Amino acid sequence: MPMKSEVKKRTHEQLNKTRKMNRPVFYILFIVLFISGCNSENIEKAAVEGSYVGQFKSEYSIAFDTIRINPYNINSGVFSIVHKTGYNRLTNNMVEVKRYKKKEFTGIWNNETRQLNEQRFGRAYSFSPDGKSLLLGSALYKKIE
C-alpha cells in the first residue's frame, strides 16, 4: 500500500501534467477570442462614422440639425463630433431670418453600452442596431452617409 505522501506526490504530478497539456489549448482559445473581439469592436466603431440629420419644430422655432461623426483615433475609440444647426425663430407667427450654430465635441466609444459618450457635457449618442439612426436624448437623427 502506497504511503500518503506518495499518493499526494503522484496526484500533484498528474495535476501538473494535465495543466501543461491544457496550456496550448487555453492560449489558442484566448488568442482567437481576443482577435475576434477586437475585430467586431472596430467594425462597430467604424459603423458609427457618418452624417446624421434631423428636423425639429416647436412653437418657438424650426431647426435643421446635422451631426457629423469622424474617427479621430479609432483604435482608442476617440471620435470628433461636429453638430451644426440651422434654425428660424418664430415670433408672432412670423419666421425670422435663418441663424446658424456650430459646436465641436470629442466622444469616446463605450463598447459595453454601445454608445459614444461626449466629453464636455456628458451626452450619450446611441445608435440603432442597423446603424441607420442616432438617438441624442429624445431627438432622432437619420444617417445619410
Structural class: alpha+beta
Report low-confidence residues grouped into runs of 5 or more.
Answer: 25-40
Helix and strand sequence: HEEEEEEEEE
Quaternary structure classification = single chain
Rg, rounded, reads 27 Å
3D shape? elongated
Percent range of helical residues: 25-40%
Strand content range: over 45%
Describe what is shown at a glance.
Helices cover 31% and strands 46% of the residues. By secondary structure, the chain is of the alpha+beta class. It starts with a helix and ends with a strand.
How would you characterize the overall build of this protein?
The protein has a domain at 49-143. It contains one helix and nine strands. It has one helix at residues 4-48, and strands spanning 50-57, 61-73, 78-91, 94-95, 99-110, 115-118, 124-127, 133-136, 139-143. It has an eight-stranded antiparallel barrel with strand order 1-2-3-5-6-7-8-9. The protein is α+β, with helices and mostly antiparallel strands and 145 residues long. The radius of gyration is 27 Å and the shape is elongated.
Outline the secondary-structure elements.
Layout: H1 4-48, E1 50-57, E2 61-73, E3 78-91, E4 94-95, E5 99-110, E6 115-118, E7 124-127, E8 133-136, E9 139-143
Antiparallel strand pairs: 1-2, 1-9, 2-3, 3-4, 3-5, 5-6, 6-7, 7-8, 8-9
Keywords:
alpha+beta; eight-stranded antiparallel barrel; 1 helix; 31% helix
